[in-house]
Amino acid sequence: MRACIGECGEDKKHMSTIYILWLRQLKRYFRSRSRIIGSLGQPLLFLVALGFGFGPIYAKAGGGNYINFLAPGIIAMSILFTALFSGIEIIWDRQFGFLKETLVAPVKRIHIMLGRTLGGATVATFQGIIVFLISLVAGFRPTTLAMLPLALVFVFLIAFLFTALGTAIASMLEDMQGFQLIMNFLVMPIFFLSGALFPLMGLSKILSTVVKANPLAYGVDGLRYALDGIHSFPLSTDLLVLSLVTVALMFIGSYLFSKIEA
Amino acid sequence: MDNIIEVKNLTKKYGDFTAVDDISFAVKKGIIFAFLGPNGAGKTTTIRMLTTLLDPTKGQISLAGYDSVKDEDGVRRSFGIVFQDPSLDEELTALENMELHGILYSVPKKTRKKRIEELLNIVELWDRRNEPTKNFSGGMKRRLEIARGLLHHPKILFLDEPTLGLDPQTRNHIWSYIKNLNKKENVTVFFTTHYMDEAEKVANQIDIIDHGKIVASGSSEELKKKTGKDSLEEAFLALTGRSIREEAQGNQANARMHWRMRRR
User: Which residues contact A79 (CB under 8 A, 6 or more apart)?
Assistant: First the structure.
């Protein structure tokens, strides 16, 4: 019993470290209204411009309702952006000094990283839900509501994966100089080559291989399965790939985070 | 036995540049200790090693009886720190910044509430506890950081240039809080500053570091006597020379750059 008292106390301490840093991410998100509103503009523009712009051609080509096809991709996009930026917030915290406050505290680095990553993932999940609601306004109609819980699972997996990626990247960068590089050579390709905007059937071999190497493709696919009932990969593949990549990124991220010298 | 900080043969090298060169010193429990030196002398690097943010290349550090390498957590619980640059979360309120700190240091909830109120009252920020810290002036942020650094009842408080960029009124206030807390809480204060009058007024012991080595140690009176000068500023200049130093900030990247520049 005695050993348990000590260890259980430690567990509680670890949980409260993770909890308070998770809560911090949420507070920061909900307090920056301009950030929320700003980050909704882009998905709305994509939905309206692409959805209504390509809609007629897509329908003529026999694809059906393009908005219905596009909406899961745009939801995934907004999660991708929010999640990556939440991870990358570490760079801001380093510049504004707050990171040091957490790094000298008597807590484990892995718990700091877990709290931050879960916080970022939760924020990105919220963002995904908001964009889902917006897409309903834009005319998106999911085939069945029974699959919404599955959609939520995918929303969270995408959110978690890309927050972990953002954390890993941010742990290697000293300042925001490399930010544009990441945006153009990582985030944009991940989005455009994920099948968020176009169907994966009949792609050239090279493009199809690139898409298959992109973890977001499995997120978009799973989300589309849950919301539209159409998919290119088996459901189990989607879940497995997303989970494994997330776990791998968490390992890499926590290693890199533990190497930060503030 | 009475030394709360003991440093033996501490060395930090970046490539061939030695930022801190085999220094040894001790700080007695309960005193106010000033660690002075020109820019780039190795002050911040030393503090970063004392506070577990940086691993020493060589040497031992004992803080409140804990070894800085073997018992990192013990060391971390024993000190509070106010960094050279601000380290608050500006989106959070003063109270939330304090709460977060209390939880990271696992201060029990009841103690935490009481302690936060007490400390915020001492630094005269209790009335503004629910404001986000981005609305605070530089002096208010500093006061909050000092209160935060003391929340978990540390035995040692590190202050790295705590009064940098503050007006004389605020500086005076901050030192009166620190002196008061040093007495009331029996917390040992370890600080750096470029304002020699501050060190002269408040420090019981002063060590001067230059080019990574400790060049003098003693009370302000002793240092003045040793150099035959009337003020600590004159004594400091006599000990460290009058040439202007290259600016080298405390972080590692800059220290490395500093080292590269020196090689040229």
Answer: A124, A125, A127, A128, A131, A155, A158, A159, A162, A219
User: Is B100 in the A-facing interface, judged by CB distances under 8 Å?
Assistant: yes
- Contact check, Cβ <8 Å, A98/B88: yes
CATH node for B3-263: 3.40.50.300
CA distance A114 to A67: 36
Q: How far apart are CA B157 and CA B179, in angstroms?
A: 12
Q: Give the containing element (helix H, strand E) for B6.
A: strand B3-14
The answer to whether residues A174 and B253 touch, using CB atoms and an 8 Å cutoff, is yes
Q: CB–CB of B106/B142 below 8 Å?
A: no
- Residue A178 CA: distances (Å) to CA of A72, A97, A172, B127: 30, 19, 10, 41
Task: Compute the distance between CA of residue B48 and CA of residue B30 in angstroms, rounded to an integer.
Answer: 21
pLDDT in tens, chain B (264 residues): 589 999 999 999 998 899 999 999 999 999 999 999 998 899 999 999 999 988 999 999 999 999 988 898 999 999 999 998 889 999 999 999 999 999 999 999 999 999 999 999 999 999 999 999 999 999 999 999 999 999 999 999 999 999 988 889 889 988 998 999 899 989 999 999 999 999 999 999 999 999 999 999 999 999 999 999 999 999 999 999 878 776 544 444 444 444 444 443
Measured in angstroms, the CA of B225 and the nearest CA of chain A are apart by: 39
CB-based contact B158:B79 (threshold 8 Å): yes
Contacts (Cβ under 8 Å, ≥6 apart) of A212: none
Cβ neighbours around B35 below 10 Å, total: 28
| Rg of chain A taking only CA atoms, in angstroms | 19
The minimum CA-CA distance between A123 and chain B, rounded to whole Å, is 16
Q: Does B44 touch chain A (CB under 8 A)?
A: no
| Backbone φ and ψ of B33, nearest 5° | -110, 125
How far, in Å, are A25, A97, A120, A203, A223 from residue A187 at the CA level? Answer: 21, 26, 17, 21, 19
> Is any Cβ of chain A less than 8 angstroms from the Cβ of B83?
yes
Question: 3-class SS at B26?
Answer: strand
Its pTM surpasses 0.90: no
Count of alpha carbons within 13 angstroms of residue B263, beta-carbon side: 11
Backbone angles phi, psi at A39, to 5 degrees: -80, -5
Rounded to the nearest angstrom, the minimum Cα separation between B245 and chain A is 24
Q: How many CB pairs under 8 A join A and B?
A: 67
**Residues A102, B104 contacting (CB under 8 angstroms):** yes
